[in-house]
Design a protein that fits this description.
- The complex is a heterodimer of chains A (110) and B (113).
- Chain A has no helices and eleven strands.
- Chain A has 110 residues and is an all-beta fold.
- In chain A, the strands form two sheets. In chain A, strands 2, 4, 5, 9, 10 and 11 form a six-stranded mixed β-sheet that branches.
- In chain A, a hairpin with a 2-residue loop joins strand 6 and strand 7 (61-66).
- In chain B, a hairpin with a 5-residue loop joins strand 7 (64-68) and strand 8.
- Chain B starts with a strand and ends with a strand.
- Classes of the chains: A mainly beta (110), B mainly beta (113).
């Protein structure tokens, strides 16, 4: 079946690293995505990883993929208060249909 | 390059009415997908259009429909509105197929009274 699971809430101190975890079920997904949503806004594509990669780094963001365990994580280095938002992971098993997790609310305390 | 635009941004309707939402994709993008976001169900896929054809459909009743025009702009329609249709409706565009990066618009906030 199609299911993506995320923890609902994460609180960190400014300057610390944040790690948001996600598990997915469909091994046919070629791409896995991380989106960010700020209050009252749409979804902002942060980064994505191909399923044949283990890791992708993009400035402060590091995505790790464990395909065997169907586990995806997003690490944000030196987390800032502006990073406070809801983070969604998503898989794309078929065409344009994205399957989203419930979203992880990241709270960054000064 | 302008991003994905959605109109209107906010809408208030009453039960039983119908509504049409519009989405203009990024210039050059030919695929448009629609999603519904609610606090209870999260983000759920409605449908995907490419070259004026519906390529993929989510699990929504027939009251939800859409179409895509030759300039790639898309509209979705909800007929006989129910209270549970209150949601943020998000449109996403991608270059060719949905497996390309999808860029989202700001959404249309629909409130059904």
């Amino acid at each position: 079946g199609e299911d993506v699971e995320q923890s609902l809430f994460l609180s960190v101190r400014e300057g610390d690293s944040s790690v948001i975890n996600c598990t997915y079920t469909d091994s046919s997904s070629t791409y896995l995505y991380w989106y960010k949503q700020e209050p009252g806004a749409g979804l902002q594509l942060l980064t994505y990883i191909f399923s044949n990669m283990d890791m992708k780094q993009d400035q402060r963001l590091t995505v790790l993929l464990n395909k065997k365990d169907k586990h995806l994580s997003l690490r944000i280095a030196d987390t800032q208060t502006g990073d406070s938002a809801i983070y969604f992971c998503a898989e794309a098993p078929r065409g344009g249909k994205l399957i989203f997790g419930q979203g992880t609310t990241l709270q960054v305390k000064p | 390059k302008a991003g994905v635009t959605q109109t209107p941004r906010y809408l208030i309707k009453t039960r039983g009415q119908q509504v049409t939402l519009s989405c203009s994709p990024i210039s050059g993008h030919r695929s448009v997908s629609w999603y519904q976001q609610t606090p209870g169900q999260g983000l759920q896929f409605l449908f995907e259009y490419f070259s004026e054809t519906q390529r993929n459909k989510g699990n929504f009743p027939g009251r939800f429909s859409g179409r895509q025009f030759s300039n790639s702009r898309s509209e979705m329609n909800v007929s006989t509105l129910e209270l549970g249709d209150s949601a943020l409706y998000l449109c996403a565009s991608s270059l060719v197929t949905g497996k390309d990066e999808q860029f989202f618009g700001p959404g249309t906030r629909l409130t059904v009274l």
